[in-house]
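Here is the promised in-class demo. Please do not try to memorize the tokens; focus on the logic of going from shape to residues.
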């Protein structure tokens, strides 16, 4: 835990002082902020749409066992093979077996945060399999040897000049290419891989219970190619991605598009119900769906934190978070960064090791304000803090300090004891943990109640 927290503090301290990083992030998020209000105009009542979406996700999560069984039954009936994986290791083992059976040498992969979560690329590399990211942002990050910086925009921290320099170094392109030229270079490189690949891997934005299908939304068409060109299609999806009905897509696809990128709807929207059928000419010959738990049932078992499973991975909370915009996505050292990452990671990977994330928040509530499914993110962060303390994941010194603070705060005579200088000395010199990464506190010479009494006395005299 100390190593994770120390790494987070060290990386965030460096990144918070990086003005060039802040300039790039502010520029890219400003583009997002300019288009989201336009996308919202498609909803006659935006708040009602969000409430409806939250209610549908409530249904999906509260009855997740039944919906998962319905999904498995219906997609299996069309030839897909469903595999239940309790851990990341189990998921990787199953993927390894499939790739070995198919004599896979090259695998194409569309953008998928859940495959980042299980570190699929590293696993495939250890097996001698070339795993190629086909989303442009993910491809850029793979070339640079970095994990995604953002849930939706993996290379958000890079400028067009950074990408041009990277392509020149890694692919030998001329320096200073425009974004359009860089995209054409990537397209040529990636199209070769679609034809070569024996296996294609995608995630799923949603699983649809009533028809037994996965839904994928994207802007580049790479996910559609990844699941259609190779003879074998593997879907890796977290069990929380369930929605009850195909009719829910009319609500969730526009919400995800608007809050994710500011679009009314993304360019490519696909519903995949299984492998190629007997009367079809296109599509994979085999389809596997790996349903991943990997700690999600820890969230499901908690009636408070269960709400975090409503997340549709739009990334809106990251773009709104003042902490994320200062320290960046890589400082977290987790797959899921920003407010949603701070809420779910301690439950997915261990409260003791990741409780520090829940404290890296201003609790301004902006994340809750922008969430399309109205998850009470800032309240869940507070609940994580409470759970960390209640489970003993806090130092004795920390507990004593807050006990003393609580006692003093609830006792007016104690609050009025001493002047501002004495209180400054107490907090800044004795409780040094506060000032390690913060400026010193500066108490007023008098408390509010003392100033109030002075004002009342002054009025009586007059």
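The designed amino acids, position by position:
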């Amino acid at each position: 835990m100390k190593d994770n927290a120390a790494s987070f503090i060290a990386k965030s301290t460096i990144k918070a002082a990086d003005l060039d990083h802040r300039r790039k992030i502010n520029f890219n998020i400003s583009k997002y902020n300019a288009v989201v209000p336009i996308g919202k105009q498609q909803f006659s009542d935006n708040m009602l749409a969000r409430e409806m979406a939250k209610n549908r996700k409530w249904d999906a999560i509260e009855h997740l066992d039944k919906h998962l069984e319905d999904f498995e039954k219906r997609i299996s009936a069309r030839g897909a093979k469903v595999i239940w994986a309790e851990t990341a290791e189990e998921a990787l083992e199953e993927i390894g077996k499939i790739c070995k059976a198919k004599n896979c040498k090259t695998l194409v992969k569309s953008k998928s945060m859940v495959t980042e979560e299980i570190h699929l690329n590293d696993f495939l590399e250890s097996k001698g399999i070339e795993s190629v990211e086909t989303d442009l942002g993910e491809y850029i990050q793979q070339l640079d040897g970095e994990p995604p910086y953002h849930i939706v925009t993996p290379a958000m921290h890079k400028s067009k000049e950074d990408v041009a320099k990277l392509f020149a170094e890694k692919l030998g392109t001329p320096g200073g290419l425009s974004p359009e030229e860089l995209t054409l270079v990537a397209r040529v490189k990636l199209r070769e891989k679609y034809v070569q690949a024996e296996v294609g891997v995608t995630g799923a934005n949603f699983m649809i219970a009533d028809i037994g299908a996965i839904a994928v939304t994207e802007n580049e068409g790479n996910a559609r190619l990844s699941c259609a060109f190779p003879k074998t299609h593997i879907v890796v999806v977290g069990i929380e991605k369930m929605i009850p009905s195909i009719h829910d897509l009319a609500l969730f696809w526009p919400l995800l598009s608007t809050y994710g990128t500011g679009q009314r709807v993304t360019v490519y929207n696909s519903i995949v119900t299984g492998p190629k059928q007997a009367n079809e000419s296109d599509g994979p010959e085999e389809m596997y769906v790996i349903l991943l738990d990997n700690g999600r049932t820890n969230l499901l078992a908690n009636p408070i934190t269960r709400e975090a499973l409503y997340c549709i991975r739009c990334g809106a909370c990251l773009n709104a978070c003042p902490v994320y915009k200062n320290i960046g996505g890589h400082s977290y050292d987790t797959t899921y960064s920003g407010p949603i990452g701070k809420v779910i990671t301690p439950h997915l990977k261990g409260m003791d090791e990741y409780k520090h994330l829940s404290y890296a928040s201003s609790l301004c509530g902006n994340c809750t304000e922008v969430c399309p499914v109205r998850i009470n993110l800032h309240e869940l962060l507070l609940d994580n803090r409470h759970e960390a303390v209640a489970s003993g994941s806090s130092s004795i010194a920390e507990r004593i300090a807050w006990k003393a603070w609580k006692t003093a705060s609830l006792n007016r005579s104690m609050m009025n004891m001493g002047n501002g200088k004495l209180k400054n000395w107490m907090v800044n010199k004795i409780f040094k943990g506060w000032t390690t990464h913060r400026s010193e506190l500066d108490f007023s010479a008098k408390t509010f109640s003392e100033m109030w009494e002075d004002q009342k006395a002054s009025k009586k005299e007059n």
